[in-house]
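Why does residue order matter? Because the sequence determines the fold. Keep that principle in mind as you read this record.
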Amino acid sequence: MEHHARRSFSYGGSGGIDFWGANGEYTAGGAWTNGSSRDLKENFTDLSNQDILNKILQLPITEWNYKTTPDNKSIGPMAQDFYALFGVGNDTSISTVDPASIALIGIKALNENLASLSANLTPVAMTNTGNLSLVDQNVADTGYTIPTTLL
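Structure:
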């Protein structure tokens, strides 16, 4: 077996290999599963959905490849930017848990924004509907027909 890089692990057997630890495992289906039980965690802190969304909007996302695999393109942030904005992990790597959780918080913030916009637009729409009814009545009183090209 040839050596690829310092701190690398290569396996060439046909029987498969299992990785596991207290906080995750590599499943037989080929997926890394992160331990996420509340029982494994401590020091919980509430976060502001809007603050996280604002940080997401500042995060540069680019297409890139690892220097060792120039033909394999990826899309994502750089660890330095991610760490500077969110303060999790370190400035050389990004866990699989943090981006997924940050994306979920961003979705919640967008939903809050949509609900707020919807609540603010409802009175405007009702006012405009009433105004349109008055316009329709005034137009009907004049006998004018709106050309179909304007509809």
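Helices lie at 49-58, 79-86, 97-142.
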